[in-house]
Write a structure and sequence with these properties.
Elements: H1 3-22, E1 30-38, E2 46-62, E3 69-76, E4 83-90, E5 100-120, E6 127-136
C-alpha cells in the first residue's frame, strides 16, 4: 500500500472515530460480566448525570469470610482526585446464579463515572465473579 493511501485511510479512520465519539449518548446503559476481580477493580466508564443503578446478577467469590461485595460509585475528575459517592453492600447476588443485588446513586454531577470494588468477601483479598453486571442510568425505572 502506498504512502498516500495509508495517509488517506488513517485520516478517514480518525474522522470516523471522532464522529462516533461525538455521537455517543449522554447517558449509557450497558451489560457485561466480571471474572476473577479483586478489591480495587474498576469498571469501564460511562457518561451520566443525576442517577445510576448498578446490578450484579449471580455472584461467586473465592477468599474472604462472607458472601458480600462492596461496590463504590466514583466520578472521574481530570487532574484531581476522583469524587467518591459512597458504596453499597451487595449480598443477595450470592444466593443463586439468578439472584440480583442492586445499588442506586442519586444527585450525581454531570460527568464520567465508574464503579470500583471496595471489598470482596468482607475483606481486601477475595476474588469476585459476576455472571451479569448491568449499569442503568435511566431514572424512569420503578
Amino acid at each position: 500500500m502506498n504512502a498516500n493511501v495509508k495517509k488517506t485511510l488513517t485520516t478517514a479512520l480518525g474522522v470516523t472515530s471522532a464522529v462516533l465519539l461525538a455521537a455517543a449518548p449522554a447517558h449509557a446503559n450497558w451489560t457485561s460480566s466480571i471474572g476473577s476481580a479483586g478489591t480495587g477493580f474498576e469498571s469501564r466508564r460511562w457518561a451520566d448525570k443525576s442517577y445510576s443503578q448498578i446490578w450484579f446478577k449471580g455472584c461467586t467469590r473465592q477468599g474472604g469470610s462472607e458472601n458480600s461485595v462492596d461496590v463504590g460509585m466514583w466520578r472521574d475528575v481530570s487532574l484531581q482526585p476522583d469524587h467518591f459517592y459512597g458504596s453499597k453492600h451487595f449480598t443477595a447476588c450470592f444466593s443463586s446464579s439468578t439472584s440480583n443485588s442492586m445499588g442506586e446513586w442519586n444527585g450525581l454531577a454531570d460527568g464520567s463515572y465508574y464503579f470500583k470494588l471496595e471489598s470482596v468477601g468482607g475483606g481486601k483479598n477475595g476474588l469476585l465473579w459476576v455472571n451479569t453486571v448491568t449499569v442503568d442510568t435511566t431514572l424512569a425505572d420503578s
